[in-house]
Structures are given as C-alpha cells and as structure tokens.
Design goal:
There is one protein chain. With about 425 residues, the protein is α/β, with parallel strands linked by helices. A hairpin with a 2-residue loop joins β12 and β13. α4 runs parallel beside α15 and α5 runs parallel beside α12. It is globular. The relative contact order is 0.12. About 5% of the residues have low confidence.
Length: about 425
Amino acid sequence: AGRAFGVVQQLVQALTGLAGRLFQHPLDHACGHEMYTSEKNIDVLFLGSSHCMRIFDCEIGDKLLQYNTFNGGTSSQFLDGSYAMLVEAGKNNTLKEVWVELYYGQLGRLNKERTEMTATYILSDYMPFSFNKLRYLLLASSSEYYVNSFMPIRRTCENIFEEGYTKSLVNKKQEESYKNYDYVDSYLGKGFIGSDSYIESGTYMRLNDFWPVAHLTEDDKENLQNIIGYCEKNRIELHFFSAPMSDFRLVSLNNYDDYVTEISEYLKENGYDYYDFNLCKPEYLNLNESDYIDDNHLNKLGADKVTNLICKIINEQVDIEDIFELSYNVKISKQVPKVYGVQVFTTTNEENTIYEIAPVANAEEEFYYTINDSCANGEVKLIQEMDTNNIFIIPNSEKGVILIDVWVNGEITNSVKVPYGE
C-alpha cells in the first residue's frame, strides 16, 4: 500500500508541480527553489504579501541576529497562503521564530468568493504533493477552480495553440539562467527583493481611490487561528506585524486606525501583540519618499531601515512599549503641516474626461494649482496659473501628460504628472 501511494504521489506531483513550474515566473521559481533546498536550518521566517518580501533583508538580518533567516513573502499572499507556507517550511526546518505580515488589502475576503487565483498558484505550484498542498487548494476557492488548481497546464491551454507561444515558453525555461535558478530583477536571495528605484519628493499621485480598509472575515480568523495553533504546538515564537506604507497612502484611506484597532484587539484576545510599523515614532523609524518604490512598497534603502529595527526588537535592544504611537492619527498630528501627494478623480463621458484634483494632506489649507498640458506633439500649453480651481477637462481624443503644481502659502509643495489618452 505504501509503495502504491508513493507511485500515485509521484504521478500527482508530475501533473501539479512540474507542469505548474513550466508557467512560473523566474522570480517565484528561484525563491521557491531556495526555500526547499536551503542547506541551513531556517531559524527566523517571515511570511506575508509583497510588502513582506520587500521589508526584511536577510543578508543584514543574518549578521545582526546570528540566525539563518528567510523571507517567505510572495505577491498578494493571503493568510491561507501564509499558513500553507508555514507548514511547508516547518517540514524541513526547526523554526524558532515566525513573523506574519498583515496587510489590510489582503484581508476582508472569503476564500469561496475568489475569482483571481494567481496568488494561490504562486505558492502551490512549487509545493510537493502532500496533505498540506491538497488542503490548501481545496479550501482556497470554490470547486469551479479545482481543475485549474490541480492541472496547471489547463490554466493557459487557450494560449497553447497560439503561434510560437509554447515554443517561446519552453525555450525560456531551457535557458541556463532559469535552470540554475539565477536571481532576476531585484531579487537579492533568500526571498528578499530590494529595488534601487525610489519616489522623487512631492511626486505622489494616484488616479481615483485606494483599496478600502476591510474587516476580518471568518476565513481570516480561521487562518489566524491555524497559524497560532501551529506555532503554539511546535513552540515557535510568533509575531504579527504590518509593513510601513507611505503617509500618502494611509492618509488617503481616512480610517486606517479602524483597521489597527480591530487587528490589535483580536490578537490581544488571543494573547499576541501586533506591531504596526506605520505607527513607529520617527526616532525609531524615519521614512520618506526616497525609501519607497511606490506609495506602499519599500525599496532596499527603506527595507534596510526596517530590517535593523526588527532585529533590535528580536535582540531586545529597544523598549517595545516606546516604539509605537497609540494610533496613526496621533502620529500624524505630531507632524508639521504637509501635502503628501495628489489624488485625481476622473469622470468620463462620450467626449471628455473631467479631472478633479484632491490634495492628500494632514492639515486644512487653501490650495492653489498651476496646470500645464504637455501634448503628444511636444507642445506645452498653460491651462491654469496658480488658481484655486481644482477641476479641468480634457477631450478623450487627445493624448499627453498633465503637469500639476500644488501651491501652499506661496510655495510649490508638490509637482505631479497625470498621463491621459490612449
């Protein structure tokens, strides 16, 4: 019976694992391989979304902690994925400490209502066939996605007959860099991504609204309990945290403290603290635009700052009670008046698009705008010069970039670009 199960296991692995890797991005390929083939025991593991994989530099962490660390963050990793990754890592390592990231945008959902499965497949495609993998895929979605989940080649079958598609894909996977698991993009090893890109001061801009703050669902709570139960059973020290995001992002949400309160209270009821690095006092963590690649992901410079602070927390070199403000609003209230960036809300009809400028700031001020239109033909024409009017209209047939300068008290505080047209 054992031999028969082994044969079945190898067959299923061939269908669900190897086929899946054929369609994997090289980054996931390298990270997954590294976690499963690490020769050293993983002592400290980080789990979470893309914010997690950009927050902890394991090269720095290993030196400061004298432990072997690994960053298990992946793009859009949900809590069920973090639990599945925790179990996988626990099979081959004696974990001493686990840090689980709680990004507000990854909560507030029910598994059975998922319609986008990429985040799940990033993890499952590299998992060897096991009860953990089976459980993860069965509970990750409704039954209508089971075929794609267990037969990865089915996901892109409509592309197989496109001229050159399969050949190009196979050729890419045959390259030495892929076969040798060479690092790609900004992947610096052990799951960490450290980009050198950064945001220029005063240039934060976003079209329309951000993803709103959500509340914990029953699925979220169940996954949290699974993580807690696993760590308690295996005597693993467990911490929950949120990665820092720009004030531009958080102030735009208007109610980030609602999220902080709900998460803090729930975890406190279960005997755990919650470290939200968005609430850090500047003397412990001082981040600005140059520490981010966008409005919510750190670059390597920002990650190095957070890595050092996390290591100080683990090594008990700081007073944990003094690091964080009581709330995000308290933190913002202590800042000097500032415009963090600009949101631009759009409304489109058959002929025109209406743009409404909304500065994101921590104080009530009277804002003035200078607006220039950099047309596709290279011509720059003035639409408005230092006026309080915050609405302008662009014909849908035109293409170019709107240049907006925000003035406060007679000085330009922000200069943003808004592309328009096709």
